[in-house]
Amino acid sequence: MKIEQIYTGCLAQGAYYIESKGEAVIIDPLRETQPYIDRLTKDGVSLKYIFETHFHADFVSGHVDLSLKTKAPIVYGPTANPEFEVIIATDNQIFQVGDLKIKVLHTPGHTLESTCYLLSDENGKDIALFSGDTLFLGDVGRPDLAQKAANMTQGDLAGLLYDSLYKKIMPLADDVTVYPAHGAGSACGKNMMKETIDSLGNQKKMNYALNQPSKEAFIEAVTDGLLPPPAYFGLNVAMNKKGYESFDNVLSQGLTALTVQDFENIAEQTGALILDTRTNSDFANGFIPQSINIGINGDFAPWVGAMIVDVKQPILLVTDEGKEEEVVTRLSRVGFDNVLGYLNGGFHAWLAAQKEVDFVNRITAITFAEQIQGKEPMVIDVRAASEYESEHVEEAYSKPLAYINEWINTIEPTEHFYLHCAGGYRSMIAASILQARGYRNFTEIAGGFTAIVQTNIPKTDFVCQSKVLK
């Protein structure tokens, strides 16, 4: 028997590979299927089933492509209604894999079709729970994503989640290992642990959601403090439910190498968004006008999903040379399949062609401290509200990057301001969006708040409500 968690940090997502006696199953696979096929070939085993815990919102699963390539059937839990051929399992149905048994536990609440899979060994002992988005480590799945489809309130869904957890999961043995679909950093929950594997017994002790005195208290606890989901979530659900373009085709189109002239022509003809995935420091030193910077060396895919509203948006890429395939792959994981190609030779080719270049006005934290001495500058902090509340520049305004489309129009174009995040990644995303929309009246701080705290700039942990809401 073999159980392997295949964890993808940039998505905070866990897929699972289980093998016994020459048969294997994969749970919640990622979009690119070749690594799974290579693994099956290496182990000399056949893929018997592809299990899906639910219709994922934060990434596009590889279930459709993997089934086409391996002929293994896709399994969903009760009430799922995808638009392709699958096995719709019944609650408590058993699937045999080698010497192992996998039991279907229908656990609605995060979504109506949400399902956990309970693995037992050859002796019938329960050993592992693949809990999807029903149970995380330190948290449970948010109960607001399926409201519209279910025609229910988030309170109604939270009530279903309570019943699922307390009636089907809590009675399981403490030594069962919990393998969730996500970890810290995912927008599918709000309080996840950094660990990705734990015992159910420990979760029973420390998970706040599993320690509520009543159903009513549970509903209040899990619905409190939920942030609005990213716009791309609903689009990813649709792709997972209806099917999608083959990843092979997406990759082939995205890896079209374009000359500078072809790049310019396509941008003009299609209105494609120019996505520059270099580091924020490289971007600050020069970029193609109107480009948006979201660096590949960060939480790339979630920020793409949060900043680019439509997954069908045509995209042209500027990447570091050799990073093209990684970028196209990571975009496809969150449904951004319409990549028209990349600039061959990267930004250096643009410079060599002597094309127009734009820059971000970036200064160090030390220079920032010098410039604002004796003044009352406007400072915009694009970190999350929780980061701002922990400590921030005195009198700074809290305007989280996630809500830039809401607050950008409140910026006075003639009034200068300073812009920062924690380290420069998010503030450069914000800076690129601001400049693409015509704002030039700001200075961005290199190194962000991490560098600012090393200066004598006044700071506070007091939350000034007017500054947060203005």
Task: Describe the protein.
- With 470 residues, the protein is α/β, with parallel strands linked by helices.
- The protein folds into three domains: 2-234, Ribonuclease Z/Hydroxyacylglutathione hydrolase-like (Metallo-beta-lactamase, Chain A, 4-Layer Sandwich); 245-352, Rhodanese-like domain (Oxidized Rhodanese, domain 1), CATH 3.40.250.10; 362-469, Rhodanese-like domain (Oxidized Rhodanese, domain 1).
- The chain is 33% helix and 21% strand.
- It has 19 helices and 24 strands.
- A six-stranded mixed beta sheet has the order 1-2-3-4-5-6, covered by helices on one side.
- Strand 16 (315-318), helix 12 and strand 17 form a beta-alpha-beta unit.
- Helix 4 packs across helix 6 and helix 8 crosses helix 12 (324-333).
- The longest helix is centred in the middle third of the chain and has 16 residues, at 154-169.
- The model has no long low-confidence stretch (mean pLDDT 94).
Q: In angstroms, what separates the terminal alpha carbons?
A: 57 Å
- Uncertain regions spanning at least 5 consecutive residues: none
Under CATH, the homologous superfamily of the largest domain reads Ribonuclease Z/Hydroxyacylglutathione hydrolase-like
Total number of strands: 24
CATH top-level class of the largest domain: Alpha Beta
Compute the number of helices. 19
CATH architecture of the largest domain: 4-Layer Sandwich
The overall pLDDT, averaged over residues, is 94
Shape assignment? globular
- Determine the fraction of residues in helical runs and give it as a percent range: 25-40%
Tally of separate domains: 3
Radius of gyration: 24 Å
